[in-house]
Amino acid sequence: MAIHEDQTLQALVDRILPADEYASGWQAGVGDFLQRILTTDLASSVSFVMDGLKLVQQESHARHNHTDFAHLPPEAQDALIADLLADKISVDWTVSATAFINLIIRLSIQGFYGDPENGGNRDALAWEMIKYHLEQKATSWPMLDTTPLPTISWEALHNHYEIIVVGAGAGGGVAACTLAEAGHRVLLIERGDWLTAAMTLRRDHLRNQRTMQGYDTPAGPPSAGNPRVYETSAGAAIVPPTDYRWSNNAMTVGGGTRVFGAQAWRFCPEDFRMASMYGVPAGSSLADWPISYEELAPYYDRAEWELGVSGDPAGNRFAGRRSRNYPMPPLQSGTATAILSKGAQALHWNSSPVPLLINSMARDGRAACLHCGTCVGFGCPAEAKNGTHNTVIPRAIATGRCDILINTQVERLMTNSDGVVTGVSIATDAENGSIRRRTVDADHVVLSAGAIETARLLLNSTSQREPHGIGNQHDQVGRNLQGHVYTGALGIFDEPVQDCFGPGPAISLNDYRHYNENIIGGGMLANEFVSTPLATWQELTAAHLIPRWGLAGKQGMRDLYSRILLIKGPIQEVPNPEARVTIDPEVRDRFGVPVARLSGNIHPEDYLTANFMAQKAAEWLTASGAKTVVSLTRKPGEGPSGGQHQAGTCRMGTDPATSVTDKWGKVWGHDNVHIADGSLHVTNGGVNPVLTILANAYRISEHLASTLATPE
To answer: What percent of the residues of the chain are helix, what percent strand, and what percent coil, each to the nearest 5?
Structure first.
């Protein structure tokens, strides 16, 4: 298929991205990009595209006396494209005209503004046009040791381990390390791969965990065989991991910490006693945690120092009491910090550095941050981001007591005739395309698969004693799903403010995390990560600041990219018991296991909080000198909150009737099953939750180790 030779397609692309002082879309290589993408990732769309191109010709012939689309004057081409978008068509289209032209617009933009390695954006022309650069001048990347750490093969697995940890993300990595260093024999099972530099460190603007351009990402999971079901009043939709409704985090060794933005906030003391402070709103399940900030504080400290956090709590009125400062000073910051600092001062607001699990100086044999323009959603080419994959998991393996099994899915927990958990059933793909299965026994199981998959695993682990799933006697497993509603504002300045000095977040506002009149909780605001050109295009078009296609859209990107600042942050959500994970009765994954079904809505209070914080972001930008400010308010809609900050589905508590585990993460009714991930969170804080997941995993696994017999 020589799609790059199709004149109709070329003409469409060049009206979506016309020539001006800079090359048109086709001149910049969009045709080469389309040829590549439609013969690889989107091969299933080729016939749809070819049919659409033929129908564009027919439409042009019907309107313009048998004139080919490519030969129409530009204004006639533009009028036809506009009519296709409005579904105003003359001929009988056998495919959706609107779907066709939207696909061509989306792919043209991806080819033009994406990274050149995908075939378009020849010589990074589009990036030069908008003044985006990947890295700082004279950057010298460190040579990394790419020797893979040892993993255990299927054949070498033991039949029995003291402890099986399910999921090698934030909580699972910490748990495996703590338990192995305490002398216990551990098997750490990860559904995804242990990504190498070649697999994940290419800064691919189409395939990353941040921008979700519709393609499978290295951090997985792949779309094939991994559906979820997303339910609203309009019905249920089967969605792949590339759909935002799937709530993808990452499934790889390190989990989300492999590709996160690394904001390392502590929850504040008020976050642990929300119900006591605010009461319980109607329709909510707002509750206090069974632990306090003071109980978790030593483990926050341990996580900060053992993994490595850079920061300074000065200026954060909700920082909580600390025993010592961070192990590293804050990262250097770019142009935006000074601008926003002046704005905060003008408003008499406190601002503070953003704590990050990123090296601001060389530490533990790894380099300091080199301030590239692709951080969140990507692996770090310098390994300066501190995830569990390069800190605690290597330590666990170094003990000689932790085996790590990758590319393997735990299908269910196994139980004996008394309903006691005895191990796990696992599955993996064999080389010949078949599926291999076996069981592995364990004295104890620790679940750290993330809030959605941990709940799914418990619900799929039925027994005669617990026919609705382990720990689900009171129908609590899967309820109270929270992610983080994000809010903020976009400001346009007269002068350039975006210098592509990564990672981006350097200055934050914490004054409004609590004690806001008529608001339950609040949130944190910070300047956003360096935005990729594709992500900026999405922000600008969503805010209706530029059109999606045409010369004005291209010139708008050139004019605005360097002059916009985004301020964003998560809010403190009010948990809703009807926002939940259940098991779909019909849809199965590639192993035949029932998939997660996500349903319910965010609580109405969250819209009030989101819009309150959006207004604060707008005030901050205005005080900082922005001439145009667009508030990213949240309108009421349907669907639960999940995403990369998913939490709450197996909450801790003191009453089995309203929680899934006790304060130590032990599942009610099961002395040998613990949870050590974000599903334990009673509320999810008004900040990024990863440091709380890490700290709580330290607390729980340390306590578990103390209750076990001392190994010989």
So the answer is: 35, 15, 50
For residue 699, which of 323, 303, 397 has the smallest C-alpha distance? 303
pLDDT tens-digit series, residues 118-161: 999 999 999 999 999 999 988 888 888 877 789 999 999 999 99
Q: What is the dihedral of CA 83, 88, 93, 94, to 10 degrees?
A: 100
Q: Could you tell me which residues are beta bridge partners of residue 525?
A: 509
C-alpha span between 588 and 30 (Å, rounded): 38
Whether the Cβ atoms of residue 662 and residue 653 lie closer than 8 Å to each other: yes
Q: 186-189 and 352-353 as β-strands: parallel, antiparallel, unpaired?
A: unpaired
| Angle at alpha carbon of residue 47, lines to 43 and 49, rounded to 5° | 90
Q: pLDDT tens digits for 554-565?
A: 999 999 999 999
Locate 61 and state its tokens: 């012939």
* Residue 2, C-beta contacts closer than 8 angstroms, at least 6 positions apart: 35
Q: What are the φ/ψ torsions at residue 45 (nearest 5 degrees)?
A: -95, 0
Length reported for the chain: 712
Helices 7-16/30-37 angle, 10° precision: 120
Q: Which residue has the tokens 């192993």?
A: 591
Distance CA 681, CA 305 (A): 23
- Alpha carbons 592 and 189: distance in angstroms, whole number: 19
- The answer to whether the pTM exceeds 0.85 is yes
Burial class for 527, CB neighbours closer than 10 Å (0-12, 13-18, 19+)? buried
Q: Please name the helix (run of DSSP H) or strand (run of DSSP E) that holds residue 453, with its range, or none.
A: helix 451-460
- Eight-state DSSP code of residue 188: E
**DSSP, res 367:** P
Which of 445, 467, 441, 470 lies closest to 455, judged by CA? 470
Please answer whether residues 605 and 281 qualify as being in contact, where contact means their C-beta atoms are separated by less than 8 angstroms. Answer: yes
Sorted by sequence, the CB contacts under 8 Å of residue 67 that are 6+ apart come out as 60, 61
DSSP-derived secondary structure letter, 307 = I
User: Pairing between strand 352-353 and 402-405?
Assistant: unpaired
The one-letter amino acid code at 36 reads: R
Other beta carbons within 10 Å of 517: 5
d(CA 360, CA 311): 9
User: In the predicted model, what is the mean pLDDT of residues 105-120?
Assistant: 97
The sign one gets for the Cα dihedral 142, 254, 186, 147 is negative
**Distance between CA 458 and CA 462 in Å, rounded?**
8
Q: Which residues, at least 6 apart from 193, have a Cβ–Cβ distance to it below 8 Å?
A: 199, 220, 252, 253, 406, 407
Alpha helices by DSSP H, 114-201: 125-130, 170-181, 197-200
DSSP state of 416: -
Q: How far apart are CA 594 and CA 586, in angstroms?
A: 7
Q: Which residue has the tokens 């939709």?
A: 237
Cis before 503? omega within 30: yes
pLDDT of 96: 95
DSSP state of 305: I
Q: DSSP per residue over 12-75, as a string?
A: HHHHHS--SSS--TTTTTHHHHHHHHTTTTTGGGHHHHHHHHHHHHHHHHHHTTT--GGGS-HH
Rounded to whole angstroms, the Cα distance separating 514 from 293 reads 15
- Judge whether 288 and 276 are in contact, CB under 8 Å: yes
Q: How far apart are the first and last CA of the chain?
A: 66
The residue to which tokens 């393996």 are assigned? 397
Pairing of strands 402-405, 186-189: parallel
Higher confidence at residue 691 or residue 3?
Answer: 691
Residue 404's H or E segment, with its range, is strand 402-405
Closest CA to 399 of 163, 62, 707, 672: 163
